[in-house]
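Self-study notes.
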Amino acid sequence: MTTSRFWRCITVMCEEITRDRFLNDHIEVFQYRNGFRFSIDAVLLAAFAAPDDASRIVDLGTGCGIIPLILGYRYPGVHIVGVEIQEALAELAIRNADINGFTNRIVIRCANLNSLSIQDVAGPVDLVVSNPPYRRAMSGRINPKRQQAVARHEILTTLSDVVNAACRLLGIGGQFAVIYPAERVTDLLTAMRAAGIEPKQLQTVHSRFHGPARRVLVSGVKGGRPGGAIVRPPLIIYEADGAYTRDVKVMLTDG
C-alpha cells in the first residue's frame, strides 16, 4: 500500500482507525478500531527488555509498532527494526513511526520470519524482542477477524519460528526477550535452549497479588552457558481496587 493510499484510507474510513495518545501524550498511535490492538503485554515487555541506549533491536511481530515506539521514546540512542507479516499492520507501524518523528531510528519490514535474514535487519543485532502468538493453531476458539486470529494463534508464525528467527538475527551474547502465557513456559524455555538461546531471567506476571501467574517474561542470551538463571520478584498488574499497581503506572507514563 502506498503512502497516499494509506492516508486516503484514513480519510475515507476514519471510523475504522483510531488515533490514541500514550505515555503522557508523548506518543501517538494509529490502531484499527476493530482489528488487532496492542495490550498491556507489549508495555510489560518493553519495560522488561530495558536495552542499552545504543542497542540495535529487532521486534518480531511488531503489529502497529508499539514496542518500537516505546523503546524509541525511552531510549533515544537505539535503532529498531520492526517485523510484521500482515501488510496492513506493517503500513500502520510505518505511519506510527513517522508521526512520532522516529523514521531515522525505526524501520518497519513486512516479512515472514522464516525468510528473514541478518541482511534484512543490518545485523547481527544486540536485542530481539517479541510478543508472539500465544495459542497453538488448532487450540481454543479462533477469532473470526483475521488480524486478531493471526496475532493470537500460531497460524502464520509458530513459537519455534520466532525463537529460531531471534537466534539467526542475534550476535553471540545478544539477548532475546519475550512475553508468553505462563501455562506454556515449558514450551518457551525448551524452544529457547534448543535454538541456542540460554534462558537467564524470568519474571512471572499476575493480575492480582494472590492470583496465579498469567504471563511470564523471559530473557535469554545467545550462546550463553547453561544455568545461572535469575527469577525476579513477581510483577503484579492490579491493586485490590482494580487500579494499576505503582510498577505498572510507571510503565504507562514517561516516568
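Second protein, same conventions, sequence then structure:
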Amino acid sequence: MFKVGDKVVYPMHGAGVIEAIETKEILGKVKQYYVLRMPIGDMKVMIPVSTVGDAGLRQVIDNETVQQVLDVLRKKRVASTANWNRRYRAHLEKIKTGDVFAIAEVVRNLTCRDKEKGLSTCERKMLDTARQILVSELALAKDIDHDGAMNLLINTVE
C-alpha cells in the first residue's frame, strides 16, 4: 500500500505524487481512493485503492534506474520494416505496460524515425505522449523541473 507523499507512476498518465487517501461514495459505493497530483498539466487523478494492482501503479524509479533508462535512450534503434500501423500498435502496447524501459524504447525509436523519415500524425502524437510520460518520471526521480527533465531526455536521444 502506498502512503501520502509517495512518488508513483500511473501507466498512460505519467508520474505523480500521492496527495491524499480519501474515502468517497461514488455511484452508491464507498471506496478508498489515492488522490494523485500530476505535476505536468497540473492534473489530479483518483485511483481506487482496491484496483491499484490492476491499474499498474508503481513507485517512481531510483537514480540507478534513471541511468539505465538513459542508456536505453542512447542505444541505436532497431530498424523496423513493419508498416506504420503495426509499429503504432507495438509501441502502444509498450506504453500501456507502464514499464519505464519500454517507454524509453518507444521514445528512442520514434525520435530516431522522425529524424530519418518523419512520422505519421498518429505516431507524432504517440511520441509526444510517451515523451511526457517519461519526462514526468525523470523529473520526479531526479527531483528536477519539467524543463530540466525534457532537456535531459532530448540531449540523451541520438
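Instructor comment on the second fold: The first helix runs from residue 52 to 55.
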